Amino acid sequence: MNRSKIQDYIDKREEQRADIYHATVQDDQHFAVNGHSYEVVLNQHDAFDADAFANRFSMILAKYDYIVGDLGYGQLRLRGFYDNDRPKVMNDRRIRSLQDYLYESCNFGCPYFVVRNLSVKAGSNKKRRHPRHRHYHRNSAEISERREKLSSPPVHQRRHQEVKQVRRGRKREFVMRRRRDD
Questions:
Q1: Does residue 135 lie in a domain region?
Q2: What is the tally of structural domains in the chain?
Q3: Which of these, 39, 132, 144, 154, is most buried using a 10 Å CB contact count?
Q4: Residue 62 is part of which domain span?
Q5: 21 and 57 in contact (C-beta within 8 Å)?
């Protein structure tokens, strides 16, 4: 694949994305992307451009409290961060680790900006149940009936199967094979 073909793919992608996300600037600090409000908190070296932000934006970023954009070699890169007081979030995904991100992942002295999401679309706060516990809402008769259907007879009562224990070093494995009828 040569460079001209790659550039054609990039141009097609930009044309397709231009119709998806639109930025409307309200003032120097506030703007909206497809109706979601954002505020520019920090604009280092005049890096923020609303149209470039909308071009690189993805809806996956709508769940973050802050979005950091850095320019390196003419490319805008976006990364999301959560607020410091969000529970159950890893420390490197909180906004207090912004300086670490800039030192480790960005070019030295590159222009960057920080945008605060004013309409965060966080995931639901429902507790997720473990997959094994998904049948708690059923009554006990249904659960025991389901267990009976899923249980299989003991190995010595199964027809046409034999089980062998195989040792491999310190480990033991059990191998089930179809029994040969002699």
A1: no
A2: 1
A3: 39
A4: 3-117
A5: yes
User: Up-side HSE of residue 75: CA atoms within 13 Å toward CB?
Assistant: 6
SS3 180: coil
pLDDT tens across the length of the chain (182 residues)? 789 998 898 888 878 776 778 888 999 899 999 888 999 999 999 999 998 998 889 889 999 999 999 998 889 999 999 999 998 899 999 999 999 999 999 988 899 999 999 988 655 444 555 555 554 555 566 666 666 555 666 666 666 677 778 888 888 887 777 766 65
Residue 66 has a CB neighbour count (10 Å cut-off) of: 22
- Tokens of residue 167, six digits: 């040792």
Identify whether 130 is part of a domain: no
Task: List 33's β-bridge partners, or say none.
Answer: 23, 36
CATH number for the domain harbouring residue 50: 3.50.4.20
DSSP track, 52-99: HHHHH--GGGGG-SEEEEEEETTEEEEEEEB-TT-TT--GGGBGGGHH
d(CA 28, CA 38): 11
In a domain, 46, yes or no: yes
Record the pTM: 0.62
Token pair belonging to 163 = 């089980």
